[in-house]
Each structure stands twice: as structure tokens, then as C-alpha cells.
Design a protein that fits this description.
This protein has helices at about 15-20, 30-45, 45-60, 70-80, 80-100, 140-150, 170-180, 190-200, 215-225, 250-265, 280-290, 300-305, 315-325, 340, 360-365, 400-415, 420-430, 430-440; strands at about 5, 105-110, 115-120, 125-130, 155-160, 185, 210, 230-235, 240-245, 270-275, 310, 330-335, 350-355, 390-400. It has about 450 residues and is of the alpha/beta class. The strands form 3 sheets. The chain has a 6-stranded parallel beta sheet with strand order 1-11-10-9-12-13, sandwiched between helices. A 5-stranded parallel beta sheet has the order 6-5-4-7-8, with helices on both faces. A 3-stranded antiparallel beta sheet has the order 2-3-14. β2 and β3 (about 115-120) form a beta hairpin. The radius of gyration is 26 Å and the shape is globular.
Length: about 450
């Protein structure tokens, strides 16, 4: 349990670094070796390795990896109208926000006869990894499936670990169907990422993989993105985290609930509260003790709270400085001047403004994406968006006059760099004699 207030002003520079340090990652050397072994098995043995590893790790012997259309239809039929309506509402919200992100091609005539275009095209094939540890995550299906659908990726593949009966949750399949995903496989863990990267007899390889997972999945994504040419991942991932900035006007029960909503994700999750009010910090600490006792995942939340922080700052400006230094995955602002404070906050995966904007809204149904950078990567990496399912490339077209107008610049720079062939590619086109000779030869 969080039982100690930390006064930021009293800390040395080294202590400040320690206070904001993320929980230590488990033995990375052993993890790396274990995952590398799994990847090798899948690369060399394909489906057989997948089936063997699924029986080993998930406790189920499968006959096939693919989920049929009949299974999807049965899953939808098994869900209550209320559950289906909730999935539909979340889908509609996420689709509305992500549809507005559709990019248009940009064409600029940089000078007469020189036309440059920036084009956006969908990534041809993408893989969506959906965790299925202690609970199904239909929300993650929507967060990944909706932008893939809007981007119009040619092929969208969903992988998810099976339960003890070799099935996927009905909610997972219903959400996938809404997103138009018809290629679904019952495979999880590092072996699922390997199948998407290398390809197997049943699962053709994809260009890019998306989605959160445990440390084995994260390590597999990291290794494969460095080993397989043309294979990319969405972003580096780490344990879930939230940072809240509150003042004396904030509701301590609201803040405690927000902190616990992340603490229940896992024992290695981290939650931080920054405030210039010692009264608020003490009130939140009391609320945490009260609220955590009624949680079904109490033990997990308590373990996470052991490495979390309640920090007293001299004012809200200092709280902003600390938040920007930490760069949280989720940032919640519960202050009188929340919108004003927003102008000074830079580093966060997603920001939740005001007393009635819980992080849970973004996780499920406000419309923003809940796949976010963790471990401080929000300083340099964006939250998942429609753009991640597309690639951008440029096109240029020059007339002879356009090339002539740039020739002096190109010749001078190629001369500076000593690249004669580059220079010749320009001058040969502008030499009338050479051009005429080429035309004669072509005739």
C-alpha cells in the first residue's frame, strides 16, 4: 500500500530519478533466451510448433488453428442483446473519432515544372494480437480492428490465446465480426507473434503487428522487428501506468478509483499522484485503503501500489514539470484550472481532463485509442491512430524545364559530394545532342 508521502522539494537529483523510475523488468537475459527458442521452433516447424506450444502453455491440444464463420455466428448468438449493444456503441464511438483522421494526398508544385506529392496508402497486411489472460478484451479488438478497417488494409489477421476448451471469448469474436475481420486464429504468446512474422502453413505472414501482451509477447515483437526484413511493430510496450495531477478541489474518491483502475492491471503497473495539497494526498491514501479491499483483483492492485507514489509539489507548475519528466501512458488532470494546465503539459500518451473524465472512458468508449506508449516513450512516440495502419510515400514529376531550373543546384551539390553518376543523370537529360542521339537509337 502507498503509505508515505514524498515531498519533491526535499529530494536530490538522484532521488528524483529513483522516485520516477519504472518497476524493474524481470530477468531480461533469461527472457530473451526463452523467447528466441520459441521463435526458432516456429520458424523451423511452423504449425506443428504452434500446436505443440499451445498445448504446453495453454493446456489445450488443438486440431486446427483457424476460427470458422460458424463459430463467429454462434458467438454472436450466445451474447445478450445488452452485451452486443455495448460492443456496438464502443465500435461506433471509436469509428467516429478514427474516421476523422483519414489523410488526403498532398500535392505541391515547389517551382514551375516540379511537382511533389505525399501519398498515403494502407499497409497491405496487419496482425492484431489480443491478450486473453484473466479476462477477454473485446475493447482491444475494437481499438485495433476499427482503424485497420477504416484504413482498408487488404488483410487483417486476429490472433488470441484459446481458453481451456480451445475457444475464444464470444465478445472477442463479436467485436472482430463488427470490424470485418474474418481471419482469426487461436494462438497466443510469443509463438503467435512468430507466426505473424515468419508465416506458417496455416497463417501467412503479415507486414506489421499491433497489440499489447505479456513480457513474452513484448520480447517477441522486439526480437522479430530486428530480425525479419519488412516486419514492423506498433510500439515498444511496458506495464500499464497512470499519473494524476490534483489540487485541493479534487475529489479524493475519484482519484483513488482512477489510480486503482490501473493498479489492477498487473503487479508491475505503476500509479502516481502529484498534488500541491497535502490534505488531498492524505485523503486519497485513505480512499485507496478503503476501495482496494472490495476489488476482485485486490492482491494484484496491492502489489502495484507498493511501487507507486504520492508526491507533494510546491505548486501545480512544479507538478506539470514532474509529469513532463515522467511522460506517463495515461495522464489525468483533476484541478480547478484543468484546461489551462493542459496547455503546459507535453509528454503523455493520452490526457483525461476534468473530474468526470475517468481513464476508463478512454479504455472503452470515448473514441480515442487505448493502445498507448509506456515507460516514458510518450516523449517520442504517439498514441495509436489511423496513421499507424498506413504508410506514406512521395511521388515527384519534373518537366524538362523544371529539371533545367534545378540543374545548377543539383550539379553543385553532387560535385560537393563527389557523386559523378548522380550529376550525369541530370546533365545527360539536358544535353540536346545526347537526347537526340538517344531518340535515334530508340527509333
Amino acid at each position: 500500500m502507498i503509505n508515505q508521502l514524498i515531498e519533491w522539494q526535499t529530494l536530490s537529483d538522484q532521488q528524483k530519478i529513483s522516485v520516477l523510475a519504472r518497476p524493474a523488468i524481470a530477468d531480461s537475459a533469461l527472457l530473451s533466451t526463452q523467447v528466441a527458442n520459441i521463435l526458432t521452433q516456429v520458424k523451423t516447424k511452423g504449425d506443428q510448433a504452434i500446436l505443440t506450444l499451445t498445448e504446453q502453455f495453454d493446456g489445450i491440444a488443438l486440431d486446427t488453428l483457424a476460427v470458422s464463420a460458424e463459430q463467429v455466428a454462434a458467438a454472436k448468438k450466445a451474447l445478450s442483446p445488452k452485451r452486443l449493444a455495448a460492443i456496438q456503441t464502443a465500435y461506433d464511438q471509436i469509428k467516429a473519432f478514427h474516421s476523422a483522421q483519414t489523410a488526403s494526398d498532398i500535392t505541391v508544385e515547389t517551382r514551375p515544372g516540379v511537382t511533389c506529392t505525399l501519398k498515403t496508402e494502407a499497409i497491405e497486411s496487419v496482425g492484431l494480437y489480443i491478450p486473453a489472460g484473466s479476462a477477454p478484451l473485446p475493447s482491444t479488438v475494437l481499438m485495433l480492428g476499427v482503424p485497420a478497417q477504416i484504413a482498408k488494409c487488404d488483410r487483417v489477421v486476429l490472433v488470441c490465446p484459446p481458453d481451456k476448451n480451445g475457444q475464444l471469448a464470444n465478445e472477442i469474436l463479436a467485436a472482430a465480426d463488427l470490424c470485418g475481420i474474418n481471419e482469426i486464429y487461436t494462438v497466443g504468446g510469443a509463438q503467435a507473434i512468430a507466426a505473424l512474422a515468419y508465416g506458417t502453413q496455416s497463417i501467412p505472414a503479415v507486414n506489421k503487428v499491433f497489440g499489447p501482451g505479456n513480457r513474452y509477447v513484448t520480447e517477441a515483437k522486439k526480437q522479430l522487428s530486428q530480425q525479419v526484413a519488412g516486419f514492423a511493430i506498433d510500439m515498444p510496450a511496458g506495464p500499464s501506468e497512470v499519473l494524476v495531477i490534483g489540487d485541493a478541489s479534487a475529489n479524493p474518491a475519484f482519484i483513488a478509483a482512477d489510480l486503482l483502475s490501473q493498479a489492477e492491471h498487473g503487479a508491475d503497473s505503476q500509479v502516481i499522484l502529484l498534488s500541491d495539497s497535502e490534505l488531498l494526498l492524505n485523503a486519497v491514501s485513505a480512499e485507496l485503503s478503503k476501495q482496494v479491499d472490495v476489488l476482485s483483483r485486490r492482491d494484484i492492485a496491492l502489489a502495484a501500489l507498493e511501487q507507486s507514489r504520492l508526491i507533494l509539489t510546491k505548486d501545480l507548475a512544479q507538478a506539470v514539470e514532474v509529469s513532463n519528466l515522467y511522460g506517463p501512458e495515461h495522464l489525468i488532470i483533476q484541478t480547478d484550472n484543468a484546461t489551462t494546465l493542459l496547455k503546459t503539459l507535453r509528454n503523455a500518451g493520452s490526457i483525461f481532463v476534468g473530474a468526470y473524465t475517468p481513464e476508463s472512458a478512454g479504455d472503452y468508449a470515448s473514441g480515442t485509442n487505448h493502445v498507448l506508449p509506456t515507460y516514458g516513450y510518450s516523449k517520442v512516440i504517439s498514441s495509436l491512430s489511423l496513421a499507424d495502419f498506413s504508410r506514406r510515400f512521395t511521388v515527384q514529376e519534373l518537366t524538362k524545364d523544371g529539371l533545367a531550373s534545378l540543374a545548377e543546384c543539383i550539379i553543385e551539390l553532387t560535385d560537393a559530394e563527389g557523386l559523378d553518376a548522380h550529376q550525369c543523370a541530370v546533365t545527360i537529360r539536358l544535353d540536346d545532342d545526347n537526347a537526340s542521339q538517344s531518340n535515334k537509337q530508340g527509333a
